[in-house]
Amino acid sequence: MHSLSPIFTTPASLWDGIRQLPGTLELWGQEVVFRFANFKDSHLDLVIPISEIEIAEEYLVFDLARNGLRIESKGGRYDLFVLEDVPRFKHALAKELARLDSKS
């Protein structure tokens, strides 16, 4: 079943280690999608299949604010995001991970 809107969406930035690239982080039933604000009219999006996610954990940004989310996929690849409400996004993602695990 595909929904027409994300389960959860929040303004976020993709952190590349030097700068934050603004956009929106969306949780869908089968994937996490980061849509770049500066590339709205392009096909450029970051898509992480939920079935590939190993770990989703909070981290400190600049060792000050706990508003970072690190999503690590199988094979050791990871992406860093900065968002306002990490606990809510992480909780929603955990529910989708558990739902997928219960189906396998």
Number of discrete helical segments: 1
Radius of gyration over all CA atoms, rounded: 13 Å
Q: Name the poorly predicted regions.
A: none
**Spatial strand arrangement across the major sheet:** 4-3-2-1-7-6-5
Describe the fold and architecture.
This protein has one helix and seven strands, in the order E-E-E-E-E-E-E-H. The protein has 104 residues and is an alpha+beta fold. Strands 4-3-2-1-7-6-5 form a seven-stranded antiparallel sheet, with helices on one face. The relative contact order is 0.21.
Please summarize what this structure is.
This protein has one helix at 86-103, and strands spanning 8-15, 20-27, 31-36, 45-49, 53-61, 65-73, 78-83.
